[in-house]
Design goal:
Blueprint: E1 12-13, E2 16-18, E3 21-23, E4 29-34, E5 39-45, H1 49-68, H2 71-87, H3 89-100, H4 104-121, H5 124-128, E6 132-137, E7 140-148, E8 151-155, H6 163-174, E9 178-182, H7 189-201, E10 208-210, H8 215-223, E11 227-233, H9 236-248, E12 252-256, E13 261-265, H10 271-283, E14 293-299, H11 300-314, H12 334-349, E15 353-356, E16 381-384, H13 391-394, E17 401-407, H14 410-419, E18 422-423, E19 425-429, H15 433-442, E20 447-450, E21 466-467, E22 470-472, H16 478-484, E23 486-494
Parallel strand pairs: 1-5, 8-9, 8-11, 9-10, 11-12, 13-14, 13-19, 14-17, 16-17, 19-20
Antiparallel strand pairs: 2-3, 4-5, 6-7, 7-23, 12-22, 15-16, 18-21
Helix pairs in contact: 1-8, 2-4, 2-7, 3-4, 3-7, 4-6, 8-9, 10-11
The structure holds nicotinamide-adenine-dinucleotide.
Nicotinamide-adenine-dinucleotide binds near residues 184, 398 and 465.
Length: about 500
């Protein structure tokens, strides 16, 4: 394996990974930026329908031998991959930072969460084995098998270029499927690095394919007859498109969408710890997390105090180049930075109070941003008294903009959260066990934190929201994933002897 994936020259072309080798791809390309410098450092090929179909054909060809490889041999590959990714995590983190912009420690955190799933996947023999009932009828045994689906497509977003592909690929592969991964075209190098590590771990060529692209590549995966299932993560409108198109073409589809995560703060909460949690969960990864807290729902009696503490703590955040000692990096593109900044103006004209304005410090000159002036910077922003009719409240902003919405009571806060069309994550901050227990029971959201602001479940539980944050069946990782990537076959068997002869047209019952 070479290290060319980490080179940063403008001419570097990121390859597809097809049939166990790098492949240049065709003429259609997109630029890949270093967001901390605001310059295109690489280019990525955007595969055509024909190229994606060819890539799928290599996966189809590799599938039967992989499916039939012994459990022991498949498991050894999964363990070797785990050792390799642990050994090379620093290198992978540098690749992530160079294209996504998140700070190095955050990139390592993303990899740590991915490794949880890699480790879970090594337990696939336990999770995919069947059941056996002896003598279901006299001399008749009934048993179930879980078999892989075939070729599985994975389509991932820009915000976790290693973790999201690794939410799915390890379990799909371990369960005996071949995988075609279409990573985000904004930060595609991590996926190629991962595929090369799998090859080094012994994965046969063609079992994991990485094909880069945009809508054309995605739609080919969604409609191709040789793709059995799709795992998608991205924004809600695209998740809905993926779910509807893939389902219409007979595929098993799980499509995880966008979010607007609320954190309800009751008057008895420890306000200092709560302010820390709000700042960490609001501005980590520049707010570009599907589990970021974007709305603090504060009960009136403590709202002023909480606003002051959050604003004070925000001053300590060092915004800058993720390769240096900073807390928060740039946004993914200039266009996205401008869109996020636009919401600050929208909120202000809709009547919100702009408590801390991240636009005040768009450059490094005197602004405190530790990075190139051309980077896609926006410093942390705090809005208060945001009207729920404002687009700044309704839309998923996906940037370092934290809103406070004030409510009179627990009931009003709960109603606000439950009325929101998204249902990915939420949290309650309180010292009242009864209130927390009531919240976990009443809130209409898939992942709930009690004094935990980003309640991303551990690998052996499953990840997934409710409402407009998910389409289709089956969550990411955990037990659900083994079920998603396999299908059950039930065998009823008997070994004939002379007593089984004779005519009997009845329904066999004993
Ligand atoms: P996105 O929806 O723009 O892109 C996701 C994937 O879809 C990419 O691979 C992209 O190439 C592809 N795509 C984009 N437009 C398409 C189109 N018109 N047709 C077909 N495919 C298309 O999302 P993003 O900006 O990369 O990621 C951010 C979004 O992902 C946010 O909304 C965030 O909340 C969401 N997200 C959700 C979760 C979750 O678990 N629910 C996790 C991470 C990110």
């Amino acid at each position: 394996m070479t290290d060319t994936a980490v080179e940063t020259t403008a001419t570097t072309r990121i390859p597809h990974w097809i049939a166990g080798a790098r492949s240049e791809g065709g003429d259609r390309t997109a630029p890949v930026y270093d967001p901390a410098r605001g310059v295109a450092v690489r280019e990525v090929p955007l595969a055509s329908e024909a190229e994606v179909s060819d890539a799928i054909a290599t996966a189809v060809a590799a599938y039967p031998a992989w499916r039939d490889l012994s459990i022991a041999k498949r498991q050894a590959i999964m363990f070797r991959f785990r050792e390799l990714i642990v050994a090379r995590k620093d290198e992978l983190a540098r690749i992530i930072t160079s294209e996504h912009g998140k700070v190095h420690s955050d990139a390592l955190g993303e990899i740590a969460r991915a490794i949880e799933v890699v480790e879970l996947a090594t337990a696939f023999p336990l999770m995919t084995k069947g059941e056996y009932s002896e003598n279901a009828s006299t001399g008749v045994d009934v048993y179930s098998l879980r078999q892989p689906l075939g070729v599985v497509g994975i389509i991932s977003p820009f915000n976790f270029p290693a973790m999201v592909p690794l939410w799915f690929a390890p379990i799909a592969l371990a369960s005996g499927n071949a995988v075609v991964l279409k990573p985000s075209e904004k930060d595609p190098s991590a996926a190629v690095f991962i595929a090369e590590l799998y090859q080094e771990a012994g994965l046969p060529d063609g079992v994991l394919t990485v094909v880069h692209g945009d809508k054309e590549a995605v739609d080919t995966l969604l409609t191709h007859p040789d793709v059995a299932a799709i795992s998608f993560v991205g924004s809600t409108p695209i998740a809905q498109h993926v779910y509807e198109t893939g389902s219409k073409h007979g595929k098993r589809v799980q499509a995880l969408g966008g979010a607007k995560n609320h954190m309800l703060v009751l008057p008895d909460a420890d306000l200092d710890l709560t302010a820390d949690a709000a700042v960490n969960a609001g501005f980590g990864s520049a707010g570009e997390r599907c589990m970021a807290i974007s709305v603090v729902v504060a009960v009136d009696s403590i709202a002023d105090e909480l606003q002051a503490r959050i604003a004070e703590k925000m001053q300590q955040i060092r915004t800058g180049d993720g390769t240096r000692d900073n807390d928060m990096g740039p946004l993914i593109t200039g266009q996205h930075r401008d869109k996020v900044a636009g919401y600050i103006g929208t909120a202000a004209s809709d009547g919100a109070e702009v408590v801390v304005d991240g636009r005040d410090a768009a450059g490094p000159d005197g602004s405190g941003v530790d990075g190139d002036p051309n980077g896609f910077w926006l410093k942390p922003t705090l809005l208060d008294k945001v009207p729920t009719s404002s687009a700044a409240y309704r839309d998923e902003i996906f940037g370092p903009v934290l809103s406070i919405v004030r409510v009179a009571s627990y009931e009003e806060g709960l109603e606000l959260i439950n009325e929101n069309p998204y249902g990915n994550g939420t949290a309650i901050f309180t010292n009242d066990g009864g209130a927390a227990r009531r919240f976990q029971n009443e809130v209409q959201v898939g992942m709930v934190g009690v004094n935990v602001p980003i309640p991303v479940p551990v690998g052996y539980h499953s990840f997934g929201g409710w409402k407009q944050s998910i389409f289709g069946q089956g969550k990411a990782y955990g037990r659900h994933a083994f079920e998603f990537y396999t299908r059950e076959k039930v065998v009823t068997s008997r070994w004939l002897d002379p007593s089984h002869g004779g005519l009997n047209l009845g329904f066999p019952s004993n």
